[in-house]
Amino acid sequence: MSARAKVWWWVGGIAIFLYCLFPVVWIVSLSLKAPADLDDGRFLPSSVSWQNYELILSGSASELFLPALRNSVGICLIATAIAVVLAALCAYAVARLDFPGKAFVLGLSLAVSMFPVISIVTPLFNIWRSVGLFDTWAGLVIPYLSITLPLSIWTLTAFFREIPWEMEQAAQVDGATTAQAFRKVIVPLAGPGVATTAIIAFFLAWNDFVYGISLTSTEAARPVPAALAFFTGASQFEEPTGAISAAAVIVTIPVVVLVLLFQRQIVAGLTQGAVKG
Amino acid sequence: MSAATTAVPAAAEAARGTRRRAPLSDRRRQEARLGLLLASPAIVVLLAVVGYPILQAVWDSLFNYKLTNPDARSFVGLGNYGLILSDPIWWQALGVTVLITVVTVVVELVLGFALALVMNNALGALRPGLRTAILIPYAIITVVSAFAFRFMFDLTSGFVNAWLPFVGDDTDWFASFGTAVTVISISEIWKTTPFISLLLLSGLAQVPGELQEAAKVDGATWWQRMRRVTIPNMKAAIMVALLFRTLDAFRIFDNIFIMTNGAAGTESVSFLAYRQTIQRLEIGIGSAVSVLLTIAVALIALMFVKGFKVNLAASTRAGR
What we know:
heterodimer, A: about 280 residues, mainly alpha, MetI-like fold, 12 helices, about 75% helix, B: about 325 residues, 2 domains, 16 helices, 2 strands, MetI-like_sf (chain B), membrane (chain B), MetI-like (chain B), cell membrane (chain B)
């Protein structure tokens, strides 16, 4: 590669960094502006202020934000756990066993992952109100399975297909019991795929907005994305820009840290079982 | 699915078969039963969570049914559909949805391909860093990115008007249709292009190196190699990226809700369904809009799979 070409690839690379980070740096900088500086029209804050964070963590907006954070973490973890367990059983069967309806399993999960969430919300809104699941954790965990389960089935099937399952038999031939062979051979091989799937599924649930705003009405179950949309300022003339920015940064940090830690596996999981972004 | 992947289980099966010395058909039946048993919980949940509500929506869409007046519920057959399809609001929402879908998918495909090329060619220290950076937009929730872009273009808190030389400082981006749709599309593109570029990057990795070399030796220019060798060999990855992004863009909701709340004529089909059901409590009409949206999405998927001959089985496993 010529020196000139190299320079251009570097320029391209740096452009990608700017592209990816630009809106993130902006929302962080907005969250650090003092309330008086929020409308100064500058990209970076002239001085760093933690007032917005105080507002959502201990101030007047904390009554909205903290319960929402708790709801989001709890509901997304439960939905992810259920999805990964069910998907692991299903993906094991698809990857390893011969049974009728394999194609149907994969086709169904693909179809569901392409399904418009809003089409399910309409009937659920009515059903949940009559059975008492409206505005409850269970009322969100169940529909979140429509997001997390199909993706988990696809990604885990892709991962499980890569596992050399004969090694389990080889271990048994060498004198290991079935349980030992499973624990010592299969679990270490399947573990990373399961973890990656769980992370990707958690993202999707964490990202949900439609279910969040449609099937909840109070802080009893409302998740963070929905709560952000309902933030209001101290008066109707005041935009809650600072509070929203600070809350946005807080919900972004754990997710970005997870991505940075598991980037290699996530890229593999996304491209192998690419069902939805 | 492919020959390579079925070969391994087949060999394992053969090994198991000889070891246990059980009659083949018996073992087969047992395996089939176990497979169904393991797969069925997931299938039952999927059908219950998606299948049942959609059937309910089809049923509800046949009634004149308002939650504000539930006693007046009456059967109207396909009346709701007639009402919707003869209303300009539906066609406006459909038009906006198609417009945003086409614009974002085209831009994302071109931009995503450029990003994939850079990642494929970037050298040394830059490469792992790029793979990390590209995942950041993916990891950020849509609502947060929508807020970031809204505040960026906002009249009071934004800096865009001050930065762009050709727009006035008092330009309200969200006040008129063209500019509002532009900002909505930009935030959608920012968030989802990285996903496309990751898919295309794994497609790039599948292009045989020998073919590239041969074309180079034959004196093909960079552009000729791109058109004749690289892109044809990536067709599967491109098609899958297109399909997933098209279906995803067609459901656009979050960005619109945060940025304009449907004002300035930016209401999408998903937004229309939401407004009818959740805000206006028109269960009947909202259900009918939902069903129409489902049909539209199914038609798009069918069009891709039949028209472009996307082999989902092969291409979702792109990258090895």
